[in-house]
Amino acid sequence: MRTDDSVPPDDDLAPRPLSARSVVLSLLLGTHPAELPARELVRLVERFGVGGSTVRAALSRMVGAGDLWRTESGYRLSERLLERQRRQDEAVDPRAHAWRGDWELVVVTATGREPAERADLRTRLTALRLAELREGVWLRPANLSRPLPAALGRVAELGTARPARPGPELAAELWPLTAWAATARSLLAHVGRAAHPAERLTAFAAVVRHLLADPVLPPELLPADWPGAELRDAYTGYQREQAAGVGAG
């Protein structure tokens, strides 16, 4: 059952002060490998209107909080945030292939779980771009080159199916496609207008969040003029822009 949880861009992109932590994380999440020298990080973050002393204090706090690891040459993302980077990379460049009509099917069989466990499972299934058709029954087109985690087999039955209903009709029930596309187009318009580094950083952070909610459906199941590829291209261009600034000072 779909939920229309698309975030209105005007609310999501309202001007707000950027913290040193948010800028550091954004820069490192977009850097491969996710490590930069301390001096380079300070220089890059200062471009967003954050003072050097503030950046250095934030780096120390982030190491203490487990966000960053201090290395011989600088700072790099912790393992937890490297996993976040991996999800972000997959959102920008999903490993999709031609669809042959099958759907991945996950039927939750475990009972007696605590609310927190159920919520965690829902979060994990949603992150795998599955959608809930009805209580405990999750599915999506089998067009992604990624196996479902083996651990799911402890709480659910995994398989494939070919629903009798037309694919486009089922996809429209499972995901808020019209709302997602409308938000994507608004984001594209916003990033096209954004000029200041801080404004662009905020705008493209919203782009990444929105791409994480893209179901990455086969073209056969999408509405006409789906803006997913255009939004990914825009973010890829921003990544190249940011990469060009590293070491350019």
Please give the largest β-sheet.
Answer: 4 strands, antiparallel
Measure the end-to-end span.
50 Å
Which second-level CATH architecture of the domain at 16-86 applies?
A: Orthogonal Bundle
**Strand order of the biggest β-sheet:** 5-6-4-7
Q: What is the name of the CATH class of the domain at 16-86? A: Mainly Alpha
Radius of gyration computed on alpha carbons: 20 Å
Number of strands: 7
SS content category = alpha+beta
Low-confidence parts lasting 5 or more residues at pLDDT below 50? Answer: 5-10
Mean pLDDT: 90
What's the total helix number? 10
Q: Beta-strand percentage? A: 5-15%
CATH superfamily of the domain at 16-86: Winged helix-like DNA-binding domain superfamily/Winged helix DNA-binding domain
Give me the strand/helix succession. Answer: HHEHHEEHEHEEEHHHH
Shape: globular
The helix content, as a percent range, equals 40-55%
CATH topology of the domain at 16-86: Arc Repressor Mutant, subunit A
Would you give an account of this structure?
With about 250 residues, the protein is an alpha+beta fold. Among the domains are: about 15-85, Winged helix-like DNA-binding domain superfamily/Winged helix DNA-binding domain (Arc Repressor Mutant, subunit A); about 105-160, Alpha-Beta Plaits. The chain is built from 10 helices and 7 strands. The protein has helices spanning about 10, 20-30, 40-45, 50-65, 80-90, 115-125, 165-175, 175-195, 195-210, 230-245, and strands spanning about 35, 70, 75, 105-110, 130-135, 135-140, 155-160. It has a 4-stranded antiparallel sheet, with helices on one face. Strand 5 (about 130-135) and strand 6 form a beta hairpin. It is globular. Residues about 5-10 have low confidence and may be disordered.
